[in-house]
Protein: Conjugal transfer protein TrbC
Amino acid sequence: MPICASSIPDSHMAPLVLALALMGAAQGQAREAQPANEGTAAMERLQKAKASANPAVHAGPDTIPDPSPALKRRAFEAMRKRRVDPRMEAQARAAQIEAANALAAEQQAMSARLHQALGLAPLDATAMPNPATSNASAKAWVPLLFASSSMPIETLRTYARQLERVGGVIAFRGVPGGLTKIGPMAELTARMLRVDPGCEGPACTMRNVQVVIDPILFRQHGIGRVPALAMVPGDPTQPYCEREDETAPRAAHLVLGDAALSGLLDEYARLGGKEEVRDASARLAGR
Structure:
């Protein structure tokens, strides 16, 4: 069978195919541009709505509302009608009185300890450490360390810790700045006797070491350098206004030098005071 040829020549088909291809490409570009145009339009509408919004509509209150007289009256009436529990009131008053009494007692105790530490009041016998032996002659010799406020605080704290074990006493010649300025001396004494150097306040634990301010003791023993150790027969903490200058007990020897208390006691014994330091050396060594 004969095959019929196309009735449209090839020269006429080429322009038609090109036109159809161009129409398809144009439709694709239109479909791609449509979402971008819609996004831009939505952003423009959002910006217009934001610009036209009134900020005062969403703002909160900037002042406290003033209650009406009726509301105030109701509030005060409710407060007057509040029932008071007598037991709670009694407990509150008792707690307040107890706290005031405890504060007054603590202040009085601290004042007494400060006066004792500065030698302005007699020493409380219960505050001294118990001796390790009941030998009456051994109790009579008291280690007396002459010190100065110019010494390093760590050195003073070390001597205080060692003297606590032997029932010793620390003596100062005077108060820095004079007797009218007792504050610096009280602060120095507190720093020296605190068991915990980082503790602050009246509740801190203090060492049982007596501190006296006695220029007469310095003059009696001819102290020109500190630290110095003497073994005093008697009570060196007795206020100097209550004892006679000439009849006050004096040490037989004097040891000078910045050494540990054990070394000072050994040197005192070497000078001839072996009997005087026997008890103190035993307690310091824990025997």
